[in-house]
Amino acid sequence: MKKRLLIVCLWVVSIGIASGSLATDKIDQVTGLKGKLNEKEGVYKVTFPRDDVKVVVGGWTMPPFMGLGTWAAFKETNAGAMVMSDTVLFEDEVNAVMSAALDNGEKSSITAGPLNEIFGAQGEIKDGMVKFTIGRPAKMHGVTIEKDMGVNTWAAFAGTDDNAIVDGDFAVTEDELQPVLKELLEDKINIVAIHQHMTHEEPRIMFFHYWGRGAAKDLANAVKGGLLVGGLLKVSSLLQD
After folding, report:
1. By the 8 A CB rule, do 46 and 83 touch?
2. Is residue 8 within 8 Å of residue 94, measured between CB atoms?
3. Which residue from 165, 160, 156 is spatially nearest to 190, judged by alpha carbons?
4. What is the reported pLDDT for 1?
5. pLDDT: is 142 or 9 the higher one?
6. Distance in angstroms (rounded) separating the CA atoms of residues 62 and 198
7. What is the mean pLDDT of residues 155-161?
8. Does the pTM exceed 0.90?
9. Alpha carbon distance 236, 139 (integer Å)
10. Other beta carbons less than 10 A from residue 184's beta carbon
């Protein structure tokens, strides 16, 4: 029976560590791996090749070196440490791994009130996180699509009020794309990917993923700045729960 391998990207904003440098010996002990330190970048990385299975693509057996390796990179931050990773899994392994990662993640405690005021709407609150979703109308094959059909911009905030992250997706027209990107980049918001979700839609909608880190209010104002520059608040509606 053929099984599909997936690569799951994990990102934990911060984990508690003692002050000073990363406890690399502790990382090795917990993971059972021997990592390598990149002194220039201040990153300690452990890797684990998925060599317990034989993966064949187009009749060719792929060695782990060709992208079938799990890795985790740790970097010291003011709040502790950040870890980012790619984890190579079978489909039936994903839920267990995601549950373990989320259960051991840092608790979020964002105060919703100030963000609600900035966006002028009530955000959705879950486990100390706050999310705002802004829909906009479009048509595809003559059918009106918006809001819950996926034509929306959203922003989710986690962490603490002073040390928060935001990630989300913008839905913009081609003419709105450049001004919104410029505004977000000026406010130190990182653009992750620009792509499309649909075909033959009117107007043509471009989507881009983004994330940022800082004080929750500053991040919210940065995202709102992108909405204002693109004129999205004039053609969009906040989805309130």
Report:
1. no
2. yes
3. 165
4. 52
5. 142
6. 33
7. 90
8. no
9. 14
10. 22
Tokens, residue 56:
């064949």
Cα 97 to Cα 9: distance, rounded to the nearest angstrom: 11
Summarize the chain as % helix, strand, coil (round to 5): 25, 40, 30
DSSP run (H or E) holding 125: strand 124-126
> Concatenated DSSP letters for 173-223?
EHHHHHHHHHHHHHTTPEEEEEE-S-SSEES-EEEEEEEEEE-HHHHHHHH
pLDDT score at 85:
78
Residue 161 token pair: 């009020």
Contact criterion met (CB below 8 Å) for 44 and 81:
no
Predicted pLDDT of residue 54: 83
CATH of domain 112-239: 3.30.70
For 238, the token pair is 């906040």
Site of tokens 């792509």? 195
Q: Six-digit token pair at 21?
A: 């440098």
